[in-house]
Request: fold
Amino acid sequence: MKKRMMALFLGAVLLTMTACGSSAPAASSEAPAAEASAEEASTEASSEETFQVGICQLVQHDALDAASQGFQDALKEEFGDAVQIDLQNAQGEASTCATIVNGFVSNEYDIIMANATPALQAAVAATTDIPILGTSITDYATALNLENFSGTTGINVSGTSDLAPLDKQEDMILELVPDVQKVAILYCSAEANSKFQADTIEGYLEEDGIAFEEYTFADSNDLQSVVNAAVADCDAMYIPTDNTVASNMTIVANVTGPAGIPVICGEENMMLGGGLATLSISYYDIGFETGKQAIEILKNGAEVSELPIAYAAEPVKKINKANAEEIGFEIPEDYEVVEP
Reply:
């Protein structure tokens, strides 16, 4: 009996030891699986990183619209749904630009894109930390009051310029209106980059012995009366890439067309709005290039302060067929003819 009891006891002990021994490997084999699952989750979260990008556009008109679209297309092409874009329009008000970009800063967006000079100036005033990319900016040194500008800003700003060669624009005036005696230069006094272009064109006109006069206005309410005054005392009109005029080209065209005054514009959409000719760049292309800069920052960690300002490809001479017919102008052979 004692032997039987002992045998039973030993059997129970062995069963217990066997059970304990088999459970250890099971616990050990589950640990690597758990670690692998954690690594996979981490990789998946990394691949699903999203970016918040804010666009502040000064005003709605075709050129700025095209630049904003090019910027968005570049980002969507690279990131797809992983980039979220907040496009807001300031309706031509610098104070509204400030409100918009302050909202972007409060929401800690990854990049701010400023479309036109007042939007860029508002963004720079709002943050020194978030990367800012400008587009439709004629001259960054003028816009940001930079001294010894050499192509990079040294601050949290880069971007693209819409500056077409101003010396070639002045050549265009003389080419299209060879008997010109006086050029009216029309722009909004509130736009610093328009002033920069006007001053530069005036220097070239002075070198060629052509008289000129500035016709400036504070806002669109004064535009028609200023244009009326200009056409009464000029043979041709030059308008730089001025956002206020671009938004109100119909007002200009309703005066200059009947008066037979050829208008040379700083960009194509202004020309299509009622001007005669332009040395044109593509605003969509400079917007797309700005998007590529954003990709360099977001994806590759580029330092915005070291990114050079980019410029448009070689501009093209274009002429508005409808306006040429209206003012009785013979179209030169070396111009690309476009129709509104």
